[in-house]
């Protein structure tokens, strides 16, 4: 199983994000602000068969240890993601992402009349809660709730 | 520093403290007793949206306590805002005064203002958002006129969907174990996700079903703009009209409230009936705002 999962080459150092729901790998990169402008090499495996999840995505970021706070934001869209910190080709640390209580600057408020959607010098702030299995974000400014988080990632 | 942005920011204890304080200021609000505890202080009324009633009651409250008021009208405020962000306006104005009362058309504007202010900010309404001073004066009126605040049976009538007054009031009432009847046309009923958040005793009802039981009849305006055609509006608005015939069925010690201004949702013949308290409610706005001003500035 392990060998089969290594569909992309081993990395010497970096972060492996495992157990991402199939189809959400690109959103994970979006949350981590990783794109063509960042220098790290990223490899992805999509639709990997998984016993627990049926299908899953995996993202591997080479040469970059991402801070735990950053990684926990992934829980917004991938609540069961596992983080593996790799050093010298070995897993040095493994943990499950934890929903942050508050996120700043990564969600856009759906309310057009919200002050956070204006040209003011303002960073969006949302309070995060799990409500019967769903992740719900509530705007600090107007109180509007987001249920479909993926649609409002900045 | 203390701001007053949303009724939800206050604990039950803090709410009761403001109501108690308002009680002490009632004779000052009536001009019977002098009290100049805010002498030398300046309040800035920063109104990005017109509101005569709320502005005047803040101004009266401040002056009764010996303080001064600078009024920045909707027109002036929006012309300032043209070349400037709200954040900058607040940074400038908050250096001129000891507290700011703000009304704005955007939701969350008051909280954002508070984050940029060097002095306490009081929210006097932010779009469809919060209007906590109205809620406090509503609670004050209920406590005063019903002689208690706990376990009352309260009917909210009219626009439950868009009325910020209603939303803030509902949140506060859940702290006092009220039984709340929601009475509105279907298209103006309370938003579902609003109800989901609350745990209280709520029930949709028709006025005639509960009229004999309720202690408080809280009426709000049904706005024409919410309807597609005039005919429909007139029909709906008419069926929610409070007339002397309706009031006759109320308990004799029940009270009728309205945040004002009223259009014709309460027949003027009701004004003389013993249950009518909406003008008293408007007066109570002054001692309650005195309590709030002294609370944030002292
Ligand atoms: N050096 C490496 N370079 C790249 N990916 C690696 C490396 N070592 C492990 N991985 C990947 O990290 C993930 C976790 O590896 P591990 O060997 O812990 O598998 P596991 O026992 O299935 O773990 P889990 O219980 O978290 O599913 C796998 O997707 C694996 O492919
Ligand atoms: Mg595995
Ligand atoms: Zn918002």
Q: Can you give a write-up of this model?
A:
- Chain A contains three helices and nine strands.
- Chain A is mostly beta strands.
- Chain A has two domains: 14-96, 2-Layer Sandwich (Alpha-Beta Plaits); 102-152, Aspartate carbamoyltransferase regulatory subunit, C-terminal domain (SH3 type barrels), CATH 2.30.30.20.
- Chain A has a five-stranded antiparallel sheet, with helices on one face. Chain A has a four-stranded antiparallel sheet with strand order 6-7-8-9, with no helix packed on it.
- In chain A, a hairpin with a 2-residue loop joins strand 7 and strand 8.
- Chain A is globular, with a radius of gyration of 16 Å.
- Chain B has 298 residues and is of the alpha/beta class.
- Chain B has two domains: 7-130 and 285-297, Rossmann fold; 132-282, Aspartate/ornithine carbamoyltransferase (Rossmann fold), CATH 3.40.50.
- Chain B contains twelve helices and nine strands.
- Chain B has helices at 12-29, 52-64, 74-83, 86-93, 109-115, 132-146, 164-173, 192-197, 207-210, 230-239, 244-248, 278-297, and strands at 42-47, 68-72, 99-104, 121-126, 153-157, 179-183, 201-204, 216-219, 255-257.
- In chain B, the strands form two sheets. In chain B, strands 7-6-5-8-9 form a five-stranded parallel sheet. In chain B, strands 2-1-3-4 form a four-stranded parallel sheet.
- In chain B, helix 1 crosses helix 6 and helix 6 crosses helix 7.
- Chain B is globular.
């Amino acid at each position: 199983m392990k060998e089969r999962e290594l569909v992309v080459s081993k990395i010497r150092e970096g972060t492996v994000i495992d157990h991402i729901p199939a189809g959400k790998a690109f959103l994970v990169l979006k949350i981590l602000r990783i794109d063509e402008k960042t220098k790290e090499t990223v490899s992805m495996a999509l639709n990997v068969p998984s016993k627990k999840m049926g299908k899953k995505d995996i993202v591997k970021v080479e040469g970059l240890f991402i801070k735990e706070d950053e990684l926990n934001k992934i829980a917004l869209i991938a609540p069961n993601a596992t983080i593996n910190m790799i050093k010298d080709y070995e897993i040095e640390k493994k943990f499950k992402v934890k929903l942050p209580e508050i996120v700043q600057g990564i969600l856009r408020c759906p309310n057009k009349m919200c002050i956070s959607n204006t040209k003011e010098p303002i960073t969006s702030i949302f309070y995060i809660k799990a409500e019967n299995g769903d992740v719900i974000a509530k705007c600090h400014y107007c109180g509007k709730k987001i249920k479909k988080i993926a649609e409002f990632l900045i | 520093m203390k701001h007053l942005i949303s009724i939800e920011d206050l604990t039950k204890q803090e709410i009761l403290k403001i109501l108690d304080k308002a009680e002490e200021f009632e004779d000052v609000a009536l001009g019977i007793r002098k009290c100049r505890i805010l002498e030398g202080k300046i309040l800035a009324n920063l109104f990005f949206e017109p509101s005569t009633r709320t502005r005047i009651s803040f101004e009266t409250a401040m002056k009764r306590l010996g303080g001064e008021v600078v009024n920045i009208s909707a027109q002036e405020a929006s012309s300032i805002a043209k070349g400037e962000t709200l954040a900058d306006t607040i940074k400038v104005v908050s250096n001129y005064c000891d507290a700011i009362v703000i009304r704005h058309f955007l939701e969350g504007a008051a909280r954002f203002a508070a984050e940029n202010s060097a002095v306490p900010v009081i929210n006097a309404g932010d779009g469809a958002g919060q209007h906590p001073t109205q809620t406090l004066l509503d609670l004050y009126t209920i406590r005063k006129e019903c002689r208690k605040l706990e376990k009352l049976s309260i009917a909210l009538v009219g626009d439950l969907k868009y009325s910020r007054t209603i939303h803030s009031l509902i949140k506060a009432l859940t702290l006092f174990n009220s039984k709340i009847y929601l009475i509105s046309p279907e298209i103006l009923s309370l938003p579902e996700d609003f109800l989901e958040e609350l745990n209280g005793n709520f029930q949709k009802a028709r006025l005639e079903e509960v009229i004999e039981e309720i202690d408080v009849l809280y009426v709000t305006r049904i706005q024409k703009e919410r309807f597609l055609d005039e005919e429909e509006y007139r029909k709906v608005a008419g069926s929610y009209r409070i007339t002397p015939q309706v009031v006759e069925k109320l308990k004799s010690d029940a009270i009728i409230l309205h945040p004002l201004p009223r259009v014709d949702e309460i027949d003027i013949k009701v004004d003389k009936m013993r249950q009518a308290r909406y003008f008293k409610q408007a007066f109570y706005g002054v001692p309650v705002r005195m309590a709030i001003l002294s609370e944030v500035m002292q």
